[in-house]
Amino acid sequence: MLAALQRSLTYFPDPTRPTPAESDVPELSPVALETEDGLSLLAWHASPRVSGAPSLAYFHGNAGHIGMRGFKVRAYLNAGLGVLLTTWRGYSGNPGRPTEDGLYADGRAARAFLRAHGCSDERQILYGESLGTGVAVHLAREATPAVLVLEAPFSSIMDIASGRFPLLPVRPLIVDRFDSAAKIGRVRAPVLIVHGERDRTIPVRQARKLFKRAAEPKEAVFIPEADHADLVDFGLPAIVLEFLARHGLAPATE
Length: 254
Known about the structure:
Blueprint: H1 2-10, E1 12-13, E2 29-34, E3 40-46, E4 55-59, E5 63-64, H2 70-78, E6 82-86, H3 100-116, E7 124-129, H4 131-142, E8 147-151, H5 157-164, H6 180-183, E9 191-196, H7 204-213, E10 218-223, H8 236-246
Parallel strand pairs: 1-5, 4-6, 4-7, 7-8, 8-9, 9-10
Antiparallel strand pairs: 2-3, 3-6
Helix pairs in contact: 3-4
């Protein structure tokens, strides 16, 4: 039963299709991302305040819709970064159904969009949140970005499933594996991991496992009081912006 229902236990799409203004990010404009398998997906985009400054591609987690992440990119817009806030197939009114390979294709479409708008891979900040970290790690292995930022990451879906169902042989049954632990060592970009010590959705040990396997340069911030979804309340944007500054990606000023 778990094997048959696993995708319904992994993805929780919300079909709501809000506007940027409704989500308190009126600077962002709706755009279409064209995937390699023929889908046209909603995303919200703003160019950097200064031409040539970096752009951040935001890959959200497994539940909700695009508007629920508006507050998460506010600090990066205020800092002058370009922002591409994406959402997955099957989410936010998009066509298609989410799968591991499908989400990788959605992520590639986001990177292609940024390239087409003058932002080379070397100026792209790949930012993954929860499930989105699995996509961000995969994409960073395929083509090296400026940096890779992982908010509340997991090591693999197999690790999550075996932790939740310790008495069942779930590992060989997993279809969408998102095995970041097997991939992150081949990422050649600087890596930042931020995780809450009190995370009850993805145990912090999974983030520590990723950090151990990541190549240098890498940094990790484990916040003692934070859970899974409240890292912004514990200074996450400032942590990210300071990390970007240390790697020469501070937003340019006019």
